[in-house]
Amino acid sequence: MQPNASERDPYNGLTSLHPTLPPAAYWDAEAYRRDLDAIWYRSWLMVCRESDIAEPLAFRTVRIASQEIVVLRDETGALRAFHNTCRHRGSQLFQESAGRLKARLLTCPYHAWSYSLRGDLVRVPSKSLPEGFDKADYPLYRVALSLWRGFVFINLAEEPEDSAESSFDRGSGDLSNWPLETLVTGHRLTKVMNCNWKIFWENFNECLHCPGVHKDLSRLVPIYGRGLMARHDDPEWARHADNDAPEFSGRLRVGAETWSKDGHVHGPVFPGLTPAERAAGQTYATSLPSMFIVGHVDYMRTVRLAPLGPEQTELTAEWLFAPDALGKTDIDNIVAFGTQVLEEDAAICEVNQKGLRSMRHEAGVLMPEEYDLRRFHDWVRERHAALKTPSADSAR
């Protein structure tokens, strides 16, 4: 769910009829391939935190559909990313998901071609070399890398546009008062959902499902219990324009301070937040297609997605806290609530996925409250339209 009310707009809702994407967009293998070519292989994707590879020679491997990428920190401390592929005959270089190199070389386990941590080929063990062979012509396949406030993003396009910061939705909340760079991970959840990645984002962008699916969350955020995300989602919002009660303003229920089982904070409150940010209860920022992050008064949450197939998506959630707060914070109370919400979302997304195979179902229809779904669908269509021909080097 992504609160996105704008005081400039009198009413957020759709006022005309709009169809959904066709059902095959969520299960067809060719549609999935087009999603990869047009979106996942051309977008800035969050893959980890800088702190996950904090020391020189540390590395992590990440998978984006069929593409396996290694992100490492070289001997100078610089972060770099490469395809996990040797230039000799295409062998996998790294077999572990994370670790620390024992030397300042990347050596292929198959035929021992060795590369510097900058990706340059420096050693070939063959007794002789073919005429015209030049090691400078065979560096590792480099991957664009961009940093944003302690997060590592990659882009698989050969010439990506802009940077990770530019990938955030223009309607995202301002997280500048949260100390993102210094936070540490208190808990991590990884889950495979049996649904297309777009199903998850559609669910995220509406709250019509909240009263039936998220009963505890709807009690914590009363406007969700009305099936709305924000004040201006109500066609009669003007009648309650001056009413700051939670069911109209979007704030947490009276007496609640944060997203937790009991609604109370369980550790130090971030000192730099404004009164409005404290009162809001949640502030969202979204970077399609791979992640969103939420700021609460005492911790932050990130959710990262990675496509595994037409009908499977991996979700990784992390709960971030101030370093000195971990020993003073009841993490279980906080994590249990967030996990419950994510499990509920995953379960209903899988229900949605299962119904899309009907031979009679050609398209659905959006309700007025699903205005952000229309925006998401338009974004998907625009990315597909921008891809005039499939990428020649994309994996099928």
From TrEMBL:
<keyword id="KW-0479">Metal-binding</keyword>
<protein>
    <submittedName>
        <fullName>Aromatic ring-hydroxylating dioxygenase subunit alpha</fullName>
    </submittedName>
</protein>
<feature type="domain" description="Rieske">
    <location>
        <begin position="45"/>
        <end position="154"/>
    </location>
</feature>
<dbReference type="InterPro" id="IPR036922">
    <property type="entry name" value="Rieske_2Fe-2S_sf"/>
</dbReference>
<dbReference type="InterPro" id="IPR001663">
    <property type="entry name" value="Rng_hydr_dOase-A"/>
</dbReference>
<dbReference type="GO" id="GO:0051537">
    <property type="term" value="F:2 iron, 2 sulfur cluster binding"/>
</dbReference>
<keyword id="KW-0560">Oxidoreductase</keyword>
<keyword id="KW-0411">Iron-sulfur</keyword>
<dbReference type="InterPro" id="IPR017941">
    <property type="entry name" value="Rieske_2Fe-2S"/>
</dbReference>
<keyword id="KW-0223">Dioxygenase</keyword>
<keyword id="KW-0001">2Fe-2S</keyword>
<dbReference type="GO" id="GO:0005506">
    <property type="term" value="F:iron ion binding"/>
</dbReference>
<dbReference type="GO" id="GO:0051213">
    <property type="term" value="F:dioxygenase activity"/>
</dbReference>
<dbReference type="Pfam" id="PF00848">
    <property type="entry name" value="Ring_hydroxyl_A"/>
</dbReference>
<dbReference type="InterPro" id="IPR015879">
    <property type="entry name" value="Ring_hydroxy_dOase_asu_C_dom"/>
</dbReference>
<keyword id="KW-0408">Iron</keyword>
<dbReference type="Pfam" id="PF00355">
    <property type="entry name" value="Rieske"/>
</dbReference>
